[in-house]
Amino acid sequence: VGLPTETVYGLAADAQDAAAVARIYAAKGRPADHPLIVHVEGPHALDGWSASHNEAAVQLAEAFWPGPLTVIVARGPRAGDFITGGQGTVALRCPAHPVALACLRALVEVSGDPARGVAAPSANRFGRVSPTRATDVVVELGEALDPAHDLVVDGGPCDVGVESTIVDCTAEPPRVLRLGAVSQAQVDA
């Protein structure tokens, strides 16, 4: 599913379904050793994906979720190699877009799993500019999408237009790996 977030459009699939996630890698032409960000419904999902409780990640999630901040934590058993690129960590975020949140809530409700999430990297070919409109997704990935199984949800243009800030919460102190809409000063506060 091409799914809007407040940052950019993502290409989303059930983060615990290896075959669905493999379709993301194929559509994007993304190397399999590049980890994907898992989008979850809220901070309560952190412990479901992490190997252990990470207080820094919880504090950041409570301060900035839903919003354009991704936290990296030590991966727990539900984070398969197909999500993490074989790394010992997993990246998590809760998007602040009503359509994305509605989809995540529905997934949680249908699955009965409060930590259920979707892998949703930007909906573009690997190395290209991230899309901020549904039409951008169709132009960029249309040939790679199967009309019988895939869809692009038009949630309007993205408000932020750049990827999320990524914070490695396995480092002490936590370290910003990529700046986005959330600044270093905001993370440090």
Can you put this structure into words, describing what you see?
This protein is α+β, with helices and mostly antiparallel strands and 189 residues long. Helices cover 30% and strands 16% of the residues. A hairpin with a 6-residue loop joins strand 8 and strand 9 (175-178). The termini are far apart.
Give a brief description:
By secondary structure, this protein is of the alpha+beta class.
Proportion in β-strands: 15-25%
Number of strands: 9
- Mind describing the biggest β-sheet? 7 strands, mixed
Which term fits the overall shape?
Answer: globular
* Cα separation of the termini: 35 Å
Q: Helix fraction?
A: 25-40%
Which spans have pLDDT < 50 for at least 5 consecutive residues?
Answer: none
Comma- or semicolon-separated keywords:
9 strands; seven-stranded mixed beta sheet; 7 helices; alpha+beta; 189 residues; single chain
Lay out the secondary structure.
Elements: E1 2-3, E2 10-11, E3 13-14, H1 18-28, E4 37-39, H2 46-49, H3 55-64, E5 69-74, H4 81-84, E6 89-93, H5 98-111, E7 118-119, H6 134-141, E8 165-168, E9 175-178, H7 184-188
Parallel strand pairs: 4-6, 5-8
Antiparallel strand pairs: 1-2, 3-7, 4-7, 5-6, 8-9
